[in-house]
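Why does residue order matter? Because the sequence determines the fold. Keep that principle in mind as you read this record.
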Amino acid sequence: MYKKINVGTSEVFEFSTDESEELYQVTFTYVGENLGNYKLKDLIAIGKIYEYVGENLGNYNPIIRLTAPNKLQLTVFKASYNPSKKTIINAETAFSNNDVNLFSTLDNKTNKGIATKLGWKQLIFQKKWDLRSNFKFEFIDKNFKSIERIQNIEFNRDWNIETITGSQKILSTTLELSNKKNKFINYEFENLELSDYFSGNKHHLNGSFTSKNFNLDFNSSLLNNKTITEKASFLRYYVNARYNLNESWFGVNFNSENNKRTNIIDNTLQNLSHKYKELQAFIGVGDSTKVFVQIGANFRTTDSIQNNKFAQVNTTKTYYLKSNLINSESANLTTYINYRTIKNTNFKNEESLNSKIVYRQQLFNQFLTFNTVYQTLSGTLPQQDFTYIKTEQGQGFYTWIDYNENGIKELDEFEIAQFPDQAQYLRIILPTVNYIATHQNKFTQTIAINPQQWNSKKGFKKLISHFYNQTFILIDGEQQQLAKKFNLNPFDINNENLLGLNFNLNNSIYFNKGKKNFSTIYRFIKSQNKATTTIDNTENKTQLHKLQFEHKFGNFWLVNFSISSSENKINSANFSNRNYFLKNNTLFPKLSYYYTKKSFFSVFYETKNKENRLGDLETLKLQKIGFSLNYAKSIKSILKIEINFLKNTFVGSNNSPVAYQMLEGFQPGKNYTWSFLFQQKLNSFLNLNINYLGRKSETSRTVHTGAIQLKALF
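Structure:
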């Protein structure tokens, strides 16, 4: 926010956090070097701060471009005529009315445009081979405006055009010779004119020939075009050939482009000219739909303009392997490996390794099931900045807490909101042009031990059948790529070159899973996350042991009990106030009375002990008691009510990121929360949701948050 001040005889804006003053929300726009009166002073969490530097001494001004209301109308007429079974004539005409500014009559004469298309398809003869022709003519007026794209997305590149201006005329004729055995050859001629500044002729030749063991596909084109300033020749071709043996196959393909663009005035080659040649060969063994192995190599050379002539700028060599070595009902193993080297003339050489191995196995009649996925990826990691923007209350994810009480929204003062009324900010990732070359390893492992098939046995097997174990491991790490070196070990999660990491180990042991009969779950979770931005490098380590018990006695009573112990460590490179090491212990018993399957009443008690082993050594003892009511009259309506009383005995400063995490958004002392949720299905497509949440603490006023939602499902 900005306030107005006087500098000499001029009234200018100055950044201010004093809410007692009259403040303005000002948007600054870049207007060019030494054409503005303001310059960028600082970058804070919610945006940029600008300051006045004098008349035409800066490059920003407090202005914003207004978008005028506009209108686009489109009318289309189509017609088709079939004088015989072998002839189809069609026509299409469209009229557009595009007014870019409804507030102005300036240039209204250019609002209207026309486009038309004529086509004539003819079957010349039809015997063992068919010969067909196709004639098309398109005209697009320079003032015609369509709602969607008319030409394909590669149209400009195909015709050596940077921008399209003026009216378009496209004439094309096609001859195709084909039979019913997947053999055809097609020739097409195209002519394009753009008003008086561009003309081009393009020849296409493509086809496909398939026999019992041999397949050949080819596609080629030659473009000759001319503008006021340049002439060009653009040759492209692609050829793919494959020969199949009984249990093997081999093949080659060629791919090339040669685009020579010459300046008419001095006969020099333009920098947009390019040329490359690509050759690929492959051989495979097995059945490509079942078990097989295929290896291949790709070689490519790329030329660009150097000193007004084509010169080689890089050479690429790629080697790959893809296979399906095991393929059965109980096991599957697929592999893909791609290794590439790029030798650059003007830059440092590059290497990349991309691979994926997937293995699935079921053993002992599904007693043991595991899935393994291992991937390596070579890519780039953006060096990203982020900022926070304020949004409607309850529509964001973050809240701002002015820890140092200076009134400035700084990057280390935003927390994930615990309550809807606090969720007023969104985090926005800013675009960047800075990237770091990385190598990424990703490993996923799932293991399930399921002895429930022994449920009908006796003795030891009967006892074991009550248990079920599931293990999940995820390791996703990105590290800075070093020259001629790939670290393929996904378990090397403490590497100093690691830039990003997502590690998660989750093991769960179940007893009487889902039966509510002395049902017990023991969970062990260990996670480690690392994130790198230009603002900060953060690392988060978590470890959790949790035991859960559930048992139903009688027809109506259900008892739940959980106990957990966890550690959570945060390390921030640039914001030391956000570093902490928390040890947490939790006890949570709950008793529920079910008077129907979906309607029940619960009372519960929870106690937590939290201790910070770093910094100011804060401690918290939480005691919580509450009850909840869940009432479902039918499948169409649900009512939920919950009331909680919390007592937080906190030692330490409660105005810090550590305290916010420990208190989970509450205040020291006594806290109260209550909530109400009602859901009603009005009919087959309308749902009504009413949600209310209230809370109160000793040091704050009562906060009420409510929402009503009517959702239509189509």
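The two ends are 43 Å apart (CA to CA).
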